[in-house]
Amino acid sequence: MWDERYDTEEYVYGTEPNDFLVSVTDRIPGGGKVLSLGEGEGRNAAWLAGRGYRVTAVDLSSVGLRKAERLAVAQEARIETVVADLAEYQIQQGEWDGIISFFCHMPPDVRRKIFGQVFRGLKPGGVFILEAFTPDQLQYDTGGPPTADLMMTAKGLKEELKGLEFLRAVELEREVREGVHHKGTAAVLQVLGIRN
Hints:
Blueprint: H1 2-6, H2 19-24, E1 33-37, H3 43-49, E2 54-59, H4 62-74, E3 80-83, E4 96-102, H5 108-115, H6 118-121, E5 122-133, H7 154-160, E6 165-178, E7 182-194
Parallel strand pairs: 1-2, 1-4, 2-3, 4-5
Antiparallel strand pairs: 5-7, 6-7
């Protein structure tokens, strides 16, 4: 499915970084190592790499990650890419200054498995940044998965991300403008957590 979606010259979620990421990037230790889960076509990874972060982008789609590499080169940056199914991916322990996840919607068992590794994957002082759709998104036709079980809530993620101190874990509505698939009013969850 994702190879087919990304198999176009167009960047279907755009080339600009996520607004929430831009607003909190300064919380990631400067020049640190960042792991991006479900990076897709590279808009967030390339942007971070262009600001001096060492970024590893993980995604199931080799088509998406090839586009991510091209986008990074176009922005005079470099990223590392890893083609992997997050259901089987292991986050390296104590390796990351930042772990990010933007609109990466997974089945609940996969999400619990991968998010259960986040705390141990972060270095002390490392941060986890996420934006995702909440179940309220089902009332909008502005993007996201078709069923509530693939979406996220603040309460649920606080359980799945045990050990982190949450500086932000807020459900809200906002205007999202990210390519052709995320466009308009959306119900989202924004999370910023830190490993102390």
